[in-house]
Write a structure and sequence with these properties.
The complex is a heterodimer of chains A (about 375) and B (about 130). Chain A has about 375 residues and is an alpha+beta fold. Chain A is about 20% helix and about 35% strand. Chain B has one domain: RNA polymerase II/Efflux pump adaptor protein, barrel-sandwich hybrid domain (OB fold (Dihydrolipoamide Acetyltransferase, E2P), Beta Barrel). In chain B, β2 and β3 form a beta hairpin. Classes of the chains: A alpha+beta (about 375), B alpha+beta (about 130). Chain A: The glycine cleavage system is composed of four proteins: P, T, L and H.
Chain lengths: ~375, ~130
Amino acid sequence: MTEKTVLNDTHRAAGARMVDFGGWDMPINYGSQIEEHHAVRRDAGMFDVSHMTVVDLHGERAREFLRHLLANNVDKLKVQGKALYSCMLNEQGGVIDDLIVYFFDEEHFRLVVNAATRAKDLAWIERQARAYGVEVKERPDFAMVAVQGPNARARVIGLLHEVDRPRIQKLGRFAAAAAQGPHGMPLFIARTGYTGEDGFEIIVPTEHAVALWQALAGSGVRPAGLGARDTLRLEAGMNLYGQDMDETVSPWEANLGWTIALDEGRDFIGRKALEAQKAAGVPRVMVGLVLDEKGVLRHGQKVLTANGEGEILSGSFAPTLDKAVAFARIPAGEPGQVRVDIRGREVPVRVVKYPFVRDGKPCEGI
Amino acid sequence: MSEIPGDLKFLKSHEWARVEDNGIVRVGISDHAQGQLGDLVYVELPEIGASVQAGTGVAVVESVKAASDIYSPVSGEIVEVNELLNDKPETINEDAFGEGWIFAVRISDRGELDELLDADAYAEQIENEDH
């Protein structure tokens, strides 16, 4: 049974090519994935991300619960509307999901988790929440639209009620606030994204989502599909759950060490396993690869290094760079001359620091 | 969706074959196939002079999304490849049945042409795929 977002008919009317994505019928592109990618890098594009799961947490001990549930520390969230990216780990230190948590008030936090992991995430969160008396409430009454690109914020702000504009204009990165959109619709606007460009992710009541989408289109924001979203986030060096990490992978092995807060005395799920792995030495690392020859790096291709074999995680043609890039997980240690097996041919690749692209431009050394 | 030219023959795997003079068969992929693949970014062409068997992989087209083997509809010798695709693989997206041809084969057994689908049968196949 395929689920549909409230924008499904709107995508179809715009000529979108639809695909099954984690059980959802979603637009992969509206004609050309590459043009949509460039539109986001150069101007402004919008994505229907309503398939993602919004979960509200209510309870007096909500913060205490999140200190236990998440590997990053919610105590970094001090100001209303502030957001934090975190992994949610199992006891073995494997990644159950990555998510964003928003702080409303001490008794109300909001999580946005992945669509493909919805059922297991909800089951896990509910199970852990019981001991804290925290209510876990899914919000299917919301749709979500990501508006991304150098001109994205200006386009969104132009549609807001005048009194809200200066406040949303000043919204810092990884912060969110409520505002009135077209026809007075209530919006929750976060300055976050998954493309490496500036922009907003907007949570909107489902009944207003089509009107919001049309207003954005009317102000020159171009619809972009999940295909472009994937190449944009890969260029920006952002992980995709299920491809770059899963329950068998620790954050150390997925280049997510920066999201782990090993602060004194906080007993979060998976901490013991993470500390043990760090003490023993992390066996695998995640690196960026660039292919200077023709060809495309793809998920599952074998990576050959001086220390043994690894594997391509996310890999694709990168439209901003006009060549293929990838994330790979390889054995730790100096990798030597790295090669990728592309259909039986060993092709040399360069190991690089990523992101590959930032603010619309290739990063140095890419 | 552009019209399927009536003079073409097809493999079920979406390659078209156009029989030209002197036993030359030009090969490409259908407009339907390029639409399914999405933006093409790389084409691996065969060597001129290579001998090919009907139904075996001869070239590879890669879109942003996936890599696909291109099968030769007929057996014979590769006599031409579309070098334009090295720099402009998107030509296949823009004109799959024309400028986006991939290679040409000098056919060794004309009987193989009878095994291929005609344009109507191919149109019916993709119609059924869509539903």
